[in-house]
Amino acid sequence: MSGAPGDDRKAQEPTVAQLIERATDQIRQLVRDELALARAELTGKGKSAGFAAAMFGGAGGVALYGGGALVAAFILLVATVMWAWLAALVVAVVLFAVAGLLALSGKKQTERAMPLAPQSTLGSVRKDVESVQQAAKEGRRR
User: Transmembrane segments in this chain: where (predicted)?
Assistant: First the structure.
C-alpha cells in the first residue's frame, strides 16, 4: 500500500534546489538570447552606418568636383576682363586668403576647446572626493 495521498504529488514536485537550478539555466539562456539579439541588431545598424558614411564620402567627392568646376567658371568669368592666366592667379590668391582665414578661425576654436578634459567636472569630482574623505575623518573621530 502506498503512503498518504499527498506523497505522490510531493514526489513529483521539484525540490527548491531543482527550481533554483532551472531558474539559473533560464536566466543564463535569456541573457544569451538577449546578447545574440543585441549583436544582430548592432550588426545591422553598423552596416547601415557604414553605407551612410560611404554615401556621405561620395557626396563630398562629388561636391569637391563641383567646387572645382565652379572655381573654373569663376576664372573664366574674370578672364573676360583680363588675361586668363592673370584671372586664374587672382582667383587662386583669393582662395588661399579664404583658406588662411578659415585656418585662423579653426585655430582659435581649437584653443578655446583645449584642454579636452572636462575641467569643471574634474573639479567637482575632486571636491566630492575631498568631502567624502573629510566626512570619513570626522566619522572616525566620533
Answer: 49-77, 83-104
Q: How far is CA 27 from CA 1, 20, 24, 36, 56, in A?
A: 42, 10, 5, 14, 42
For 99-115, what is each residue's pLDDT tens digit?
999 999 999 988 887 77
pTM of the model: 0.49
Q: Sign of the CA dihedral 129, 131, 133, 139?
A: negative
